[in-house]
Design a protein that fits this description.
Blueprint (H helix, E strand, L loop, with lengths): L4 H9 L9 H4 L13 H11 L3 E5 L5 E6 H6 L5 H4 L1 E2 L10 H10 L4 E6 L3 E7 H10 L1 E4 L5 E3 L15 E4 L5
Antiparallel strand pairs: 1-2, 2-3, 4-5, 6-7, 6-8
The protein binds zinc ion.
The site of zinc ion has 8 residues, from loops.
Length: 174
């Protein structure tokens, strides 16, 4: 069976995700966004229909100005997105390593990170679910005793034998 070039390239770039993989390689590009003057009732519909829990808020030039999340909707009164949105946001760039983005997501207890370019232009979104396959499939293996550890970075030392060198194993099939 012949593969067309686009499919072949896709297959080649899919599996090998590492902490050094750039955010730009795995981010979601077609991001649903909202604007400050949009009615809250409209985005509630949109979020329910799309099963998402937050939306980046952009201006007319697609520049990120903030985010609006479920907790903004539940916890604040207002008619428009601008009334209830959270101004500003943690962001990453396309060149940010995935390990760094994951740490930010975990440490700040946030579900998604807008990806921006240049002057705050929104170009994508990276979410926890984008990283789940990495967490699920990468095992750091102690070179001394063979004990396995999951996570974005190798442990500093093996708690079983004190070993300090690890190899990363990625199963062929995810
Ligand atoms: Zn060990």
């Amino acid at each position: 069976m012949e593969k067309n070039p686009a499919e072949a390239a896709h297959a080649d770039t899919q599996p090998q995700v590492t902490p050094e993989t750039k955010v730009g390689e795995i981010m979601t590009r077609n991001v649903l966004t909202t604007k400050a003057d949009q009615a809250v009732v409209d985005i509630v519909q949109l979020m329910a229909k799309s099963r998402i829990t937050g939306l980046p808020v952009v201006d007319d030039n697609n520049r990120l100005i903030g985010v609006v999340s479920e907790s903004d909707i539940i916890g604040k009164a207002g008619d428009t997105v601008g009334d209830i949105m959270t101004h500003g946001s943690w962001t990453v760039g396309e060149e940010t390593p995935l390990g760094e983005a994951a740490e930010l997501l975990l440490r700040r207890r946030i579900r998604r990170l807008p990806v921006i370019r240049g002057d705050n232009e929104l170009v994508g979104l990276v979410s926890r679910s984008d990283l789940i396959s990495f967490f699920a499939s990468h095992v750091w293996t102690c070179s001394w005793c063979g004990k396995g550890y999951r996570g974005f970075y190798a442990p500093s030392a093996c708690n079983n034998c004190g070993g300090e060198t690890f190899t990363i194993k990625v199963p062929d099939v995810i």
